[in-house]
Structure formats: structure tokens, C-alpha cells
Amino acid sequence: MTTWQLVTDLWRFDSPAWLIAFVALVLYLWAFGVRLSAHLAAFVVATVIFLLATVSPIAVLADGYLFSAHIVQHLLLLLLIPPLLIASLPRDRVAAALQRHGTRFIQDTFGRAPMSWMFGLGIMWLWHIPPLCSASVTSTPVYVLQCATLLLAGFAFYWPVMNPVKSERLSPPGAIVYLFTGCLGCTLLGVLLTFAPVSACPIYMHPVDTLGVMPLLQQRWQMTHAADQQIGGLMMWVPACMIYLAAILVITRRWLAEGSAVTAGRGSHGIG
Predict the structure, then answer these.
(1) Half-sphere CA count of 32, side-chain side, radius 13 A
(2) Is 268 inside a domain boundary?
(3) For residue 231, how many C-alpha atoms fall within 13 Å in the half-sphere facing its CB?
(4) Is residue 270 part of a domain?
(5) Which of 117, 124, 140, 238 has the fewest CB atoms within 10 Å distance of its CB?
(6) Contact yes or no for 10/61 (Cβ under 8 A)
(7) 227 is in which domain, residue-wise?
(8) Considering the entire predicted model, what is its pTM?
(9) Residue 222 CB partners (closer than 8 Å, separation 6+)
(10) pLDDT of res. 134
(11) Structural domain includes residue 269
């Protein structure tokens, strides 16, 4: 098998993830309409990333072949899809709905920053306990549970920062500290994975090569288990923090822009 064949052939076309993505898109269009907008674009991108995480060669290699692919899958599910899903919600309509009594539990559940922070980081650490990591590869129910909890944890983590109800979001300084400490949590886990003297996920030590890809991985890619784990740790360390840093930069830019607008408004009022 060549690298090109791996990229083009290793797709799970029989996976229920395709149906989940289709139903989610239909429900979104039914709830918010078909009008082209940035919200719809965010949802479509989130759906594409979900498919990359669950049915693409990334998912296939994560299924017992490469620990680094397993980490990529986690980063997609935990750090990229949830903020896109929140961004896809039409702010005014969702904010109005969240003010109703019947949906208040959403704000009460996800709006508490300390709990959301601990849940978001805790789930990420939990699934890298070696026995649980291996179980997520060997057991389909555990794998489904893992994917669901990663998505939910990511949603909970980002909610205090991106809450559609602006008055209930963290303040810009609070959001910056919140995201920065999240970056530190990823960094610590990444360092532990990179320099761990033992396997972080033993199932990847001896892959069962039912697809015939190991010659490519071991001979052409020179991918030993130790190198694979180090790459996975570095990906948890660097790219994950870059995502947090990007969010911090966006919040800082908006904070400065709002401050400038307030200053300009006061100046105009004074001149008048």
C-alpha cells in the first residue's frame, strides 16, 4: 500500500457517522433555515471535521494503528468541532430561547466556568489513562462513549467563553485566563505523553494489521511505537495550545475594538 492509497482507500463508508452527520444537517436547516450565512458555514465545517474524525483515514489509523492519529481524532472532537457548533447558532434567536424558563438548565449546566473547565480538561485526561485508552480501541461501546463525551466536554468548555447570551459570558480578562489555563492543561498532558517511559496506550504497541498498512507505516514512514507516541504527545502539546492561543487572540482583538469604540463614543459625546 502507498501513502496515496492510504489517503484515498481507507474510508469507512459503512459507518453510521455518515447518517448522524446527515440527520444533524437536516435538523439544523429545519431549525434555522436554509439561508446562506456564516452560521451555516460554521455548521457545515463542523460536520466535515466530524466526518474526518470518524470515517476518514484518521479514524482508521486511530483504530489500533497510530497513537498520533488517535490524538488528532481527539483534538478534532474536543477542540475544533464544539466551538464551531456554538458559532453556528444564530445568536439572537438562541439567546432569546435561552432566556426562557424551560431552557435555563442549559445555562445552569454549561455556564459555570469552573465546572466547565474541569469537565473539559478532565475528560481529555481521563481518556488517556492507559486502560481506558486501550478499551476505546477494542470496544465499540467504549469508543462511542469516548466520542460523545469528548464532544460534550468541548461544548461545555467553550460555552462560558462563547455563550450566545453576551451578559453571561466570561469577561475578556476572565476568558483569556480561562483559555490560557486550558492551554497549560494540554501542555502538561502533552509533555507527559511525549516523555513517558512507558506506553501511554498499550494497544498501539502491537497493532493487528488487518488492512495491510503496517509495512507502509513501519518501513516507508519509519514509524516506531516510541516515535508515534512522541508525535502524539507533541500534537497534544503544540497544536492544541495554538488553538487556545488563536481563541485568546480573537477575544483580545474584540476587547480592544470594543474599548476603542467606547472611547470614540465618549469623545464624540464630549464634542457634541
Answers:
(1) 20
(2) no
(3) 14
(4) no
(5) 140
(6) yes
(7) 3-258
(8) 0.89
(9) none
(10) 93
(11) no
